[in-house]
Amino acid sequence: MKVVVDFDLCEANAKCMAACPEIFYLDDEDNLHLKQETFDETLRAKVEAAVRLCPRQAISIVK
Amino acid sequence: MPALEEIDLCNPDYFNEGVPHHWFRALREQDPVHWQEEADGAGFWAITKYEDVKAISRQPRLFSSWQGCTNIFELNEEELAGSRLLMLNMDPPQHAKFRRLVSAGFTPKRIAAMEPHLRELARRTVDRIAERGECEFVADVASRIPMETICEMLGVPESDRQHIYDVSNKLIGFDDPEFQTSMDDGRVASTELFMYASQLGEEKKRCPHDDLATILINAEVDGEKLSEIEFQSFFLLLSIAGNETTRTVTAQGMRLLSAHPALKHRVVQDLSLLPRAIEEILRYNPAVIHFRRTLTEDVELRGKRIRKGQKVVLWYPSANRDEEIYAEPDRFDIDRWPNEHLAFGVGEHYCLGASLARLQLNTIFSELFRRLPDIEVDGPVRYLRSNFIDGIKEMHVRFTPESRQRRPSA
Prior knowledge:
The structure holds two protein chains of two kinds. Chain A is of the alpha+beta class. Helix content of chain A is about 25%, strand content about 20%. In chain A, the strands form two sheets. Chain A has a two-stranded antiparallel sheet with strand order 1-4. Chain A has a two-stranded antiparallel ribbon with strand order 2-3. In chain A, about 25% of the residues are buried. Chain B has a single domain (about 5-405), classed as CATH 1.10.630.10. In chain B, about 45% of the residues lie in helices and about 10% in strands. Chain B has helices spanning about 20-30, 50-55, 75-85, 95-105, 110, 115-130, 135-140, 145-155, 160-170, 185-205, 210-220, 230-260, 260-270, 275-285, 315-320, 355-370, and strands spanning about 35, 45, 65, 135, 220, 225, 290-295, 300, 305, 310-315, 375, 380-385, 390-395, 395-400. The interface of A and B includes residues 8, 14 and 57 of A.
């Protein structure tokens, strides 16, 4: 499974980093980085939480 | 259960004593995508379930904010043209271009840097009332910090802030005769704000500062500077959005905590409970009651056929009490967690000021409860007559003056 972020929507609310720090990282300039784009079943619940919690709904999962 | 035919979400009289939750409960249960007739309009689909409000908010191209703008009532072509200059009433990709001009100033990190200053504003606000033993909470407390903060961020000098506050009240209180009697008063008020914005813009051109008005007067979209009316509209949106909403939630929070003395006592004893209490206040009484969208294509939702050009209205207080999301949704529970309410909306138009609002609420309640721990509502609450903003117009509070409180001995 792969994480896709709409960077035009992202406004650095950092909810994803709290939900899944294994993948989402916000730098000091408020830019979001993906530590890895693909993930397996072990991170699925955390990534789904990030998708749900993003106030801008900027994150999606592609299978 | 009320009969569905009785329900009239268009009439602000039914919102005069608070949001009619018994209607929303019936709609969620019996007809979550409900056709609401209008006396002076084409009617609309009332959306009352959490997941539906969220799903519609995620699809701004299908559910347009631009086409008919975001208020229930219909606008003529000239009014539409004016309203569409507000970021609130834009769709992607245009919306993102305008929003990006100011969004960097509102990220959680940038807002967190304002905390010492907001604490100082809160301290001064409480200083002014601390020895009085009573005050009118809306004017003396709830309105102060939002007005000072947004005016400061915009770059409005202190001497002009009361004027901006008074005028923005008239604009949003269009259904309440106490603030204005007709839509014409609203037009006069917006003209006043526009004139003020132009003067301020000229001033910022001559004398740039580190504020939003300076950013906007110099900003470009698609390689072009904002026109005068675009600049004015931006100023108007930020001054209204930053004033009325936080004031409303501050007053509602004071009312709710007063009405639940045991919960308030716990918060006063342990201010680390405040963040969750604030989320519950936002869930229980969100400031914005509804926004409207207009369909750009035919869709089907919960078996109802919604046609292109029809309007749907998203009812946030109803979404926030959806039984499918919340156990005992009508219970005010400051321990509720997780609490993923929709008080700030979600998606493309998610409230730009959400982090700022949360910090403002935290600073004012911290300062109040630390210094005036027995503060409570005293007397009847007067609500705004509106099905758009769940506002409180007047609410008296009383407390032991600060100097007469028994301090814990050292």
